[in-house]
Design a protein that fits this description.
This protein is of the alpha+beta class and 237 residues long. The protein has one domain: Alpha-Beta Plaits (2-Layer Sandwich), CATH 3.30.70. It is 26% helix and 29% strand. The longest helix is centred in the middle third of the chain and has 19 residues. It starts with a strand and ends in a 7-residue tail after the last strand.
Amino acid sequence: MEKLVIPLWRPEGTTGDDFRDTLLALAAEQLCQLPAIRALRLAVADSAVSPADKKRMASFGELPDGVLSAWVDSVTHAEPLQRLLERAVSKSAIYLVTESEQLVNSESADARGRLPGFCQVVFLQRPERLSEQAWLDIWQGSHTGIAIATQSTFAYRQNVIVRALTVGSAPYSAMIEENFPAQAMTSDQAFYGASDDETLQANVTAMMESCARFIDFERIDVIPMSEYLLSKPATAG
């Protein structure tokens, strides 16, 4: 099984909520019906996460309005998935990734499949100063424990991009998915899991110093999104 990460841009004149509803309907009615699809996860920048707009960062052009994660039997099934998405988006890109789930989700989704709070989606490029092995050793090795200890995340996934499957895609090296409680959209203390200013400052310093070891902050995109867990319909036994 392979994982595809698919950034999506909404059509001009479409709101984030309209885009979300269109994608959820498309997933339920058509995407989940594709036999090669094993699971889907949708992240979308809708009105529910607008309080976190100040956390947005753009380094590689126009930020995507949604990201579809798809687990497929083989990367060869990316094309029919893209064809179905074309009718709902202004543009898209597809990346083949390897996923490391460092903190497994501990929260339940609502009736529509939405997880509570928000998902901070981060696309980044490996700094030229680091070899790929050194970069991975820092990010997936020593940094992981620091990130979990200094933030209020209830889920944390690291996706290493193997290659882009679409021409002209942004030169990303990785995509991060971090789920935070709703309060973290507007409260630094809630974001960093700190009960007082002293702990907040210590956590911010530890996190930023660790990130600086493997991230160039001028080569990073950050998008707060709502996250939906989508299931394939049950089949008769």
